[in-house]
C-alpha cells in the first residue's frame, strides 16, 4: 500500500498515489491537493487545512442566496475547539554527555595540569637546594616542614590533575573521532569503551592513543595533523619511560642516589608539563586550530609570472618610417640589397 496520499479539498477523502498524481477527486469531483506522506507534519506540506463546520458534508442542497448578514466575517466569543491542530515542531533537547563539562574544559584542565607539574618541579628543585645547604649547615625544622608540605602538596595535586586531564582528553578524543567519521558518513569503528581502556590502562596506553589519533589524522588527510601526532606520540612514550625510571630511582639506598633522584623527579615533572601542553596542541591541530584555539586560515600559494620579454624582435611593417641607426655604423640596407641581387642572379641562371 502506498504511503503517499492526495487529500481532497472538498470532501476530505485521501486517495493513495499509485502512479501519476490525480487532479480531481473520484468521489465528489473536488480538487486534489499535492501528494504528501500519510499524517505528514505541517512543515512537510505545501498546503494547509481550513476548519469547516462539522455538518458541511450532509448538506447537498443548492446554496441559497446569501444575505448581507451572512456574508460578514464570522466572529467567535472564544477560540473554537473544533478543527485540526498543528502543534509547532518541538526542538529536540541536547543529548546529555557523560562528563560533558569536563570534556568541554579540556584546555583549562590540561593547562592547569602543566602549571601544577611546573610547580612540582620548582618544589623538587627547592628541596635539592636545601639538601645542598644541609651539607655544611643545619636546616631549621620549620623550613624543612614547609619544604615537605610544598613537595607533597604539589605532587598530590599534580596526580589528581593528571587524572582529570587524562579523562577530559579521552572524552575529547571520542568526540573528535565521532565528528570526523560522521563527516564522511560513517560511524566510529571503535567503541567508547575501547577508547577509554586503550588510553587509561598503564603500559597499554603507550601504544593505543597514538593509533587512535593517527586514524583521525589519516581520515582528515591533513599532513600537519599527522606530523603533530607523531611528535606527540614520541613525547608521550618518552614521558612514560622517564616516569617509570623515576619510580625505579626511588628504590636507591645511598644518599647521593636519593639526592640525584630529587633532580630526576624535577626533570620528570618538566617532561610531564611539556606532554600536557603537547596533548592540547595535538587535539587542537586535529580540530583545525592552533595552540591558542584560533582557527587556522588556509594559505594559498600563487605562481608569480614575470612579464613576458620577447627574445626575438618582432617584424615591423615597412614603409614610411625610418629607424635611427647608431653613429658610425654602416647602413644595413646596402648589404641586404647586394645579397638580394646575388640571389636573383643565381635563380636566373
Describe this structure in words.
It contains 8 helices and 3 strands; from the N terminus they run E-E-E-H-H-H-H-H-H-H-H. Helices cover 50% and strands 3% of the residues. The longest helix has 43 residues, at 141-183. Helix 2 packs antiparallel against helix 3 and helix 3 crosses helix 5. A hairpin with a 6-residue loop joins strand 1 and strand 2 (14-16). Mean pLDDT is 78; it is low at 320-334. Among the domains are: 1-51, no CATH class; 106-286, no CATH class. Strands 2-1-3 form a 3-stranded antiparallel β-sheet, with no helix packed on it. It is mainly α.
Annotation field: number of helices: 8
Poorly predicted spans? 320-334
Radius of gyration: 43 Å
In percent, how helical is the residue content?
A: 40-55%
Shape from CA axes? elongated
Biggest sheet features: 3 strands, antiparallel
Q: What order do the strands of the largest sheet run in, or round the barrel if closed?
A: 2-1-3
Return the structural class: mainly alpha
Following the backbone from N to C, one meets helices and strands in this order, namely EEEHHHHHHHH
Question: What would the average pLDDT be, to the nearest integer?
Answer: 78
DSSP strand count: 3
Measured by DSSP, the beta-strand proportion falls in under 5%
Compute the separation of the termini in Å.
100 Å
Short description:
With 349 residues, the chain is an all-alpha fold. Helices cover 50% and strands 3% of the residues.
Amino acid at each position: 500500500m502506498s504511503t503517499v496520499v492526495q487529500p481532497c479539498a472538498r470532501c476530505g477523502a485521501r486517495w493513495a498515489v499509485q502512479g501519476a498524481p490525480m487532479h480531481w477527486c473520484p468521489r465528489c469531483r473536488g480538487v486534489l491537493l499535492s501528494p504528501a506522506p500519510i499524517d505528514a507534519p505541517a512543515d512537510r506540506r505545501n498546503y494547509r487545512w481550513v476548519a469547516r463546520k462539522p455538518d458541511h458534508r450532509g448538506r447537498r442542497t443548492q446554496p441559497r442566496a446569501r444575505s448581507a448578514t451572512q456574508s460578514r466575517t464570522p466572529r467567535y466569543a472564544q477560540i473554537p475547539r473544533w478543527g485540526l491542530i498543528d502543534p509547532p515542531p518541538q526542538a529536540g533537547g541536547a543529548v546529555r554527555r557523560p562528563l560533558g563539562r569536563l570534556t568541554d574544559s579540556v584546555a583549562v584542565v590540561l593547562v592547569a595540569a602543566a602549571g601544577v607539574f611546573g610547580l612540582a618541579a620548582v618544589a623538587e628543585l627547592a628541596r635539592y637546594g636545601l639538601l645542598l645547604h644541609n651539607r655544611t649547615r643545619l636546616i631549621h625544622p620549620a623550613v624543612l616542614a614547609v619544604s615537605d608540605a610544598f613537595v607533597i602538596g604539589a605532587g598530590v595535586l599534580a596526580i589528581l590533575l593528571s587524572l582529570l586531564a587524562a579523562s577530559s582528553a579521552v572524552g575529547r578524543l571520542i568526540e573528535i573521532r565521532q565528528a570526523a567519521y560522521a563527516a564522511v558518513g560513517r560511524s566510529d569503528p571503535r567503541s567508547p569503551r575501547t577508547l577509554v581502556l586503550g588510553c587509561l590502562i598503564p603500559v597499554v596506553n603507550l601504544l593505543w592513543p597514538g593509533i587512535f589519533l593517527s586514524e583521525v589524522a589519516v581520515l582528515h588527510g591533513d599532513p600537519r595533523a599527522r606530523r603533530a601526532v607523531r611528535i606527540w606520540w614520541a613525547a608521550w612514550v618518552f614521558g612514560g619511560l622517564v616516569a617509570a625510571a623515576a619510580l625505579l630511582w626511588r628504590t636507591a639506598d645511598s644518599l647521593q642516589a636519593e639526592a640525584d633522584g630529587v633532580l630526576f623527579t624535577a626533570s620528570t615533572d618538566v617532561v610531564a608539563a611539556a606532554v600536557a601542553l603537547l596533548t592540547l596542541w595535538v587535539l587542537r591541530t586535529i580540530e583545525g586550530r592552533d595552540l591558542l584555539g584560533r582557527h587556522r586560515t588556509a594559505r594559498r600559494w600563487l605562481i608569480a609570472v614575470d612579464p613576458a620579454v620577447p627574445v626575438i624582435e618582432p617584424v615591423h611593417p615597412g614603409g614610411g618610417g625610418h629607424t635611427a641607426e647608431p653613429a658610425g655604423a654602416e647602413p644595413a640596407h646596402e648589404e641586404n640589397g647586394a645579397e638580394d641581387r646575388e640571389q636573383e642572379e643565381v635563380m636566373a641562371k
